[in-house]
Write a structure and sequence with these properties.
The protein is of the alpha+beta class and 238 residues long. It has helices at residues 7-12, 43-46, 92-101, 106-110, 198-208, and strands spanning 20-25, 31-39, 48-53, 56-61, 78-81, 84-88, 125-133, 136-146, 154-161, 168-173, 190-193, 214-223, 229-235. The strands form three sheets. A six-stranded antiparallel β-sheet has the order 11-10-1-2-12-13, with helices on one face. Strands 5-6-7-8-9 form a five-stranded antiparallel β-sheet. Strand 7 and strand 8 (136-146) form a beta hairpin. The longest helix is centred in the C-terminal third of the chain and has 11 residues, at 198-208. The chain starts with 6 loop residues before the first helix and ends with a strand.
């Protein structure tokens, strides 16, 4: 059994977890919780904001004149299909969305994708879904990462959770820590605590992320009773 860690301390003690997805449940057990953040070391990565698009969000260049290569930094991290919310760190959001819409499944959709072609880092693609139905939440997470330093093959790992205890979350991030090249995340998603209402939790996460490297944060609380959602977005560039 994995130990439940302090989410705040986990973030504070890691200067560069990269991009991160948390899926969980609030302390009262009334809401499914989603958090997605992005960080950056390069000018191109830091030159971004989250903007709302339909039921989800999209990344957008803060200063269009500084945008160098949009291929890996501009995408829709969050999309909603019926009772399922999809969150990823790249354009595989669309891959999962299209597959689910056609009657396919999460894991099969991601077998068609690989880690990002940004050697020597080979940034992992991390993805998750939350389905709220019948007063319960069902969670899935995935990571696609390079199996070696050369990026010669892809390791695909998927995790399914039929439920989550109140006040707990499952945290998956792209990088183990800072480095050059940056080491990929290892092991199972970390079990962390989820504290407070949406505003308290958003503030806790944002304040715990490294001040120099954090870029944007998305948080959503979805009512298990009726599926209604509350959303908060925080951008460093305002």
């Amino acid at each position: 059994m994995l130990k439940t860690l302090s989410f705040a301390e986990t973030l504070k003690t890691n200067a560069y977890p990269g991009r991160g997805i948390l899926l969980g449940k609030d302390e009262a057990g009334e809401h499914a919780v989603i958090a997605y953040f992005i960080m950056g070391r390069s000018v191109n990565s830091r030159n971004r904001v989250f903007v709302e698009e339909g039921d989800g969000i999209r990344t957008q260049a803060y200063d269009e004149s500084k945008l160098v290569d949009p291929s890996l930094v501009i995408y829709a991290p969050v999309r909603v299909l019926g009772d399922t919310t999809i969150v990823t760190n790249g354009d595989q959001t669309d891959t999962v969305y299209d597959a689910l819409k056609a009657g396919g499944d999460f894991a099969s959709a991601l077998r068609t994708r690989c880690f990002e072609p940004d050697g020597p880092n080979w940034t992992p693609r991390i993805s998750g879904t939350v389905r709220v139905a019948g007063g319960e939440a069902f969670y899935k997470l995935s990571i696609l990462k390079s199996g070696d330093a050369e990026g010669s093959f892809c390791v695909r790992q998927s995790f399914e959770y039929p439920d989550c205890k109140p006040g707990q979350g499952l945290f998956l991030h792209t990088y183990k820590c800072d480095g050059n090249p940056i080491p990929s995340f290892e092991g199972e998603p970390e079990h962390v605590d989820v504290r407070g209402d949406i505003d308290e939790f958003t503030s806790l996460v944002w304040e715990s992320l490294n001040a120099d490297n954090k870029v944007s944060l998305f948080v959503r609380y979805i009512s298990l009773a009726d599926g209604t959602a509350q959303t908060r977005i925080v951008n460093k560039n305002v």
